[in-house]
């Protein structure tokens, strides 16, 4: 079914009330590679039984953490085959540190529909408030749907990060686990692209790939640990575009440039001649 612009743009996708606890936080952090060094006290704080520190990227999975069914791309005016969809970009702004347990409500709308001709970009914006009505975080997520363009929407702009013309201030290498995608899918993303060899082949990949949001969270954690001393409360905003695929077990090469209150970041796959993984990555400090 083609995208119906008149119905979809601005439509409310849904409202979800959910809760989380310290065990959920710990599982998420394991999913993005925390605890690789069992003697690193700073890293182990991500896994504390009662009061773990919380990466802002937990916001990307919090509302759907306990889902056990594959996601569907079914919204007002939009019905798309999951196999035709890839994650385009993700942005999270945290209005205050995320507590290690709590409950909240997220409201999501379709904020933009970009017509790229041969494809569509669907941008959703979510606002999350706690039980007292106070804002916790705001998120924007874009998905790229192959073959779904031509519906008459605007093409949209392209905001590129201008990286400094110099060597990065820090280069970090972060190895993912061979079973990283199987672990991360327990955080509520059961897309078979990340677990089923048959589905991955149907989608055009030689084997299951790592969730883009797993790469997103892994890079955030690695940069937080290396550049911010593990202080998650310094992070106000974290945004990235998904530039390529990562296979579980590969090593991410993460380059970081200091730029005032911002850290400009890129991530590539060291095992495949620095094939791009994440681009236009910006971490903004408070």
TrEMBL record:
Residues 18-147 form the Peroxisomal multifunctional enzyme type 2-like N-terminal domain. Coiled coil: none annotated. It comes from the Bacteria. Residues 163-262 form the MaoC-like domain. SUPFAM superfamilies: Thioesterase/thiol ester dehydrase-isomerase. Transmembrane segments: none annotated. Pfam families: MaoC_dehydratas, MFE-2_hydrat-2_N. Belongs to the enoyl-CoA hydratase/isomerase family. This is MaoC/PaaZ C-terminal domain-containing protein. It comes from Williamsia marianensis. The lineage of its organism: Bacteria, Bacillati, Actinomycetota, Actinomycetes, Mycobacteriales.
């Amino acid at each position: 079914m083609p995208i119906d612009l008149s119905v979809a743009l601005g439509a409310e996708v849904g409202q979800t009330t959910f809760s989380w606890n310290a065990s959920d936080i710990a599982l998420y952090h394991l999913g993005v590679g925390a605890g690789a060094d069992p003697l690193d006290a700073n890293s182990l704080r991500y896994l504390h039984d009662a009061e773990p520190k919380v990466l802002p990227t937990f916001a990307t999975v919090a509302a759907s953490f306990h889902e056990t069914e594959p996601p569907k791309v079914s919204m007002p005016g939009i019905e798309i085959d999951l196999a035709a969809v890839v994650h385009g970009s993700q942005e999270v702004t945290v209005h205050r540190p995320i507590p290690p347990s709590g409950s909240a409500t997220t409201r999501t709308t379709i904020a933009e529909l970009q017509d790229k001709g041969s494809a569509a970009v669907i941008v959703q914006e979510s606002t999350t408030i706690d039980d007292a009505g106070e804002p916790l975080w705001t998120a924007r997520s874009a998905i790229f749907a192959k073959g779904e363009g031509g519906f008459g929407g605007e093409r949209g702009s392209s905001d590129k990060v201008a990286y400094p013309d110099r060597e990065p201030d820090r280069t970090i290498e972060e190895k993912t686990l061979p079973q990283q995608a199987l672990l991360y899918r327990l955080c509520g993303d059961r897309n078979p692209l990340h677990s089923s060899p048959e589905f991955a082949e149907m989608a055009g990949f030689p084997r299951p790939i790592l969730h883009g949001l797993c790469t997103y969270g892994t890079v955030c954690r690695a940069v937080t640990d290396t550049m911010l001393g593990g202080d998650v409360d310094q992070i106000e905003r974290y945004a990235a575009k998904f530039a390529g695929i990562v296979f579980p077990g590969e090593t991410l090469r993460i380059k970081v440039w200091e730029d005032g209150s911002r850290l400009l970041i890129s991530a590539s796959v060291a095992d495949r001649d620095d094939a791009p993984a994440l681009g236009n990555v910006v971490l903004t400090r408070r």
